[in-house]
Amino acid sequence: MAFAERFGAVRVSDLEQGGSLRVMFPRPEPGEPLCAALANIGGGVAGGDELAISAHWREGAEAVVTSQAAEKVYRAVDHVPARIETRLTVAAGARALWLPQETIVFEGARLERGLDAELAEDSSLIACESLVFGRTARGERVETGRVFDRWRVRVGGRLVYADALELDGAVAATLDARAVGDGAVAVASLLMVAPDAEARLGPLRAALAPAEVEWGASAFDGCVAARFVARSALALRRALGSAVTSLSGRRPPRLFAF
């Protein structure tokens, strides 16, 4: 999908969809940017599934991409992973927000996920990805599985952010470790890349001070990066909503935060 300024407003300029992925466009609140909501009509992903998402913000465009519901990653058969690849391109003067709802990982799931972003020097990106291990309201606990989550972000062709998270094997035992998750069942990464990003660190920390999750945030090289671990998916969602509001100056779409 691609977004571009046309006739005084940001509109969808290109759209191609197939397989189990679809895009919907809920009506934004007055004064809010265009919103695109991804939907997986397959009901989730399992071992061997491969999803590819590409979103482009043309020059000067502002738009939010979220998801219609939380993604679900089911048990893998024969240790074959599910793969999700996302590519974001943000042109000069554009403002991009990549805010999908959480990915719920089930017992025995295997997921390999990658996010690659290319930004122009004067563009901005706020991106968030979160993982929830099991549906705690149903008493589920993910004892084993594998998750590999990779980020690469470049500005003007220069690598400014690289990150990788891997949980393999005894997922619950790893998250239970005090120095890792201290019993957490949900984790998230949040990144802002913008010319003024580093100035947002103080307000972000103030916004997160009352959050009922563990978090840490730092600023460097035109980026603000934050990590979250939580014992509740709802608490994590609320903390991320506060963080996105602080960084972007407006509330995220209702599909993402409530």
UniProtKB/TrEMBL annotation:
Keywords in alphabetical order: Chaperone, Cytoplasm, Nickel insertion
Keyword Nucleotide-binding recorded: no
Keyword Transferase: no
Any GO CC annotation of this UniProt entry: cytoplasm
Superkingdom per UniProt: Bacteria
Locations listed in the record: Cytoplasm
InterPro entries for the chain: UreD (IPR002669)
Gene Ontology terms, MF aspect: nickel cation binding
Family: Belongs to the UreD family.
Subunit structure: UreD, UreF and UreG form a complex that acts as a GTP-hydrolysis-dependent molecular chaperone, activating the urease apoprotein by helping to assemble the nickel containing metallocenter of UreC. The UreE protein probably delivers the nickel.
Function: Required for maturation of urease via the functional incorporation of the urease nickel metallocenter.
Protein name: Urease accessory protein UreD
Gene: ureD_2
